[in-house]
Amino acid sequence: MDILSADKPKEECGVFGIYAPEQEVAQLTYYGLYALQHRGQESAGIAVSDGRRIQHYKGMGLVSEVFTAEVLSGLKGKMAIGHVRYSTTGSSHLSNAQPLVVYFQKGMIALAHNGNLTNALELRAELGSQGTVFQTTIDSEVILNMIARYRRYSLEDAIIKTMIDLKGAYALLIMAEDKIIGVRDPFGIRPLCIGRLGNRYCLASESAALDTIGAEFLRDVEPGEVVTIDEEGLHSHRGTLKENPAFCSFEYIYFARPDSTLDNLNVWESRRQMGVELARECPLDVDVVLAVPDSGTPAAIGYAKALGLPFEEGLLKNRYVGRTFIQPTQKMREIGVRIKLNTNSRVIRGRKIAMVDDSIVRGTTSSKLVEMVKNCGAKEVHLLISSPPVCYSCYYGIDTAERETLVANKMSIEEIRKFVGADTLYYLSEEGLRRALGNLPVCLACFNGKYPITVSQKITKEDLDIKPSSC
Description:
Helix content is 32%, strand content 26%. The strands form seven sheets. Strands 4-3-5-2-11-10-12 form a seven-stranded antiparallel sheet. Helix 5 (120-129) packs across helix 6 (139-149). The longest helix is centred in the middle third of the chain and has 15 residues, at 267-281. The relative contact order is 0.14.
């Protein structure tokens, strides 16, 4: 993991599915997952159905490491679903890789899940008391077993009944031998959208994956909606009563690709607008604006343009360094930082710098970046963050640090400024973030602790890591 992502929250997974009997569905799913690789780098998997049976392949590593041309050529079918996964600490095992494929009385089912259930422990205990045996430590298997409990009904009805029992965030792809079903939780916390390729349909965590395979973006799956894709086309069902939407704000701040559109809001434009709001709230007298690449770039551009300041690439990211660069000693770790990221002295030296980043979690990365820029000869370094302080953990499918390790939970903004070594430090306000997002109904729980879905006071991050962590 590189310096730029080591101190950020982690998205836990991405999903992609397609029904297209005339196409090489495994290949298309491979490319769809490739486009979603930023959502998970620890494991990848694809399941395909030929209409009679489901076969699958999954492994640890990046999409390009798991799937060879030979493997893909052996995955023949009419439809496919795929998954890329980031796991929380202690649950990075092949047994937890997805899609999960199981046998039911009425046939086979494959499931790919993005999100976390907040009542997974209770459901797991209830199922265990009834004799259910679990093969994994992830809450996705809980969902499968809940569906199995209702399989005397149609698959869609079994899923809808299961949704009544589930609490938390989830975007699901469920494939039977003859159909793919997409499901989004009633709050819409985790993203899921629908595309069309010719006269066939596909589903993905982000619209950028649809663009990659040449599919047309149609719309987002509505919160609480269940959609079926089969030989007859696309069908929509109301799963549960739609709650007040609470789309994840961190998808726009950091996680999603900037070329994606989530719930009718373009990610790049929303990040640029965060920079505009920063300029409104904190105009600075500086010589140049820099971005912490890459997620800080749109906000830095918006900030610079709003104030008529030059935007320059003062921090340059080496895009050819692998994710497994070994750093065995402190000296080697310092060299590793330079291999991953370097400063452009001609942009920085002797100038007052505004450096824009999307968030601060623990603060360790920010302190290294400020130090690098100052060591390059910057006269002043002013750090601007295009989101509010992260003070609370997330329980809905994002691996944030333990609350006690979040720097904004332990320190005041002035203390954080001193810790990271910046001359000034400014965070975008919640009001500014809401304006940047066009007042879209978003979840801000990691900033203000107002969780849209009840979280048990007994639940801990260790619980989520060991028991229900889906990705």
